[in-house]
C-alpha cells in the first residue's frame, strides 16, 4: 500500500517496489537499513507470478544491495493475502548493528 493506503498497482512489480520502499522506511525508523536484514519472507498469491517476482526482485535488489550480498529469502505461494488485489507481501527480520 502507498502512503495514502491505496494499492500501489494491480501488478506484482508495482506492489513489490512499494513494499520494499515501505520496508526501507520501517527499517530506517528502527535505526536500520537493508544491510541489517538477516532474512526475508516473500508471499505470492500464485505460482504463475514467480517469474515476474524474480525479475522484479533482481532489479530492486540491484538497487538495494549494490554489492550483490542479498539476505536469504523464503518464497511461499499462498491462497490469498489479506485484501483482494494484493498479490505480493514481504517480511523481514533485521538486527540493528
Short characterization:
The chain contains 2 helices and 3 strands; from the N terminus they run H-E-H-E-E. The chain has helices at 12-29, 50-64, and strands at 37-44, 73-77, 88-94. Helix 1 (12-29) runs parallel beside helix 2.
Describe, in plain words, how this protein is organized in 3D.
It is globular, with a radius of gyration of 13 Å. The protein has a single domain, classed as 2-Layer Sandwich (60s Ribosomal Protein L30, Chain: A). Strands 2-1-3 form a three-stranded mixed β-sheet, covered by helices on one side. With 97 residues, it is an alpha+beta fold. It has helices at 12-29, 50-64, and strands at residues 37-44, 73-77, 88-94. Strand 1, helix 2 and strand 2 (73-77) form a beta-alpha-beta unit. The N and C termini lie far apart (28 Å). Helix 1 runs parallel beside helix 2.
CATH overall fold name: 60s Ribosomal Protein L30, Chain: A
Look at the structure and name the CATH superfamily: RutC-like
CATH class: Alpha Beta
Structural class: alpha+beta
Largest sheet: 3 strands, mixed
What is the residue-mean pLDDT, rounded to a whole number? 95
Total DSSP E strands: 3
- Summed up, the domain count is 1
**Measured distance between first and last alpha carbons:** 28 Å
Rg, Cα atoms, Å: 13 Å
Number of helices: 2
Q: What percent of residues adopt helix (DSSP H or I)?
A: 25-40%
Strand content: 15-25%
- Outline the low-pLDDT stretches: none
- Given the C-alpha coordinates, what overall shape results? globular
Sheet with the most strands: spatial strand order: 2-1-3
Q: Spell the H/E element sequence.
A: HEHEE
Q: Which architecture would the CATH scheme give at its second level? A: 2-Layer Sandwich
